[in-house]
Amino acid sequence: MAAHENATGMPWRCLRFRRLRSVVRYNAPRIEGIFFNTATCEKTAMRIQVIGAGGWGLALARLLALNDNTVALWCRDEDNPDLLRESRESKTFLPGVLLPGGIEIRRDVIPDVDIAVFAVPSHAMRAVAARYPLAPGVIRVSVAKGIENESLLRMSEVLADVNPGGPVVAL
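User: That's the sequence. What structure does it adopt?
Assistant: Structure tokens below.
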């Protein structure tokens, strides 16, 4: 038995994922197998759109790209996407941290990805989600903290309200 395997002969990483998957109950049948093939213990590359190029969005986009996913990053015009595309670094939000070359920096959102990660401030969530509708079946992930002022909804509830048609999860 190798050091990276347990008594079942499976890598430890595989067993950790299986335990995590058994804990997640919300929409589990719909999203099972997209991220990870549990039969062969192989990762499946996903097409992921990160919406928001602040510090949190940049860090998540970098992490997702380093894990062999196809990542597109939506960037507002105010955040200077051309400079970010050229230098691969945001001196405002994450100075000294370079984005991998595989991240596509865009001014629009790709509507038919596997996962859309919303990393925008809570006060802008409704407007951004309404401006960029996604295809049905796209998994919407809210990574924003806070509650909408007018409706007192959580950000995941705002996404489900504005952009229905797919599972919504919160990180």
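The longest strand covers residues 47-51.
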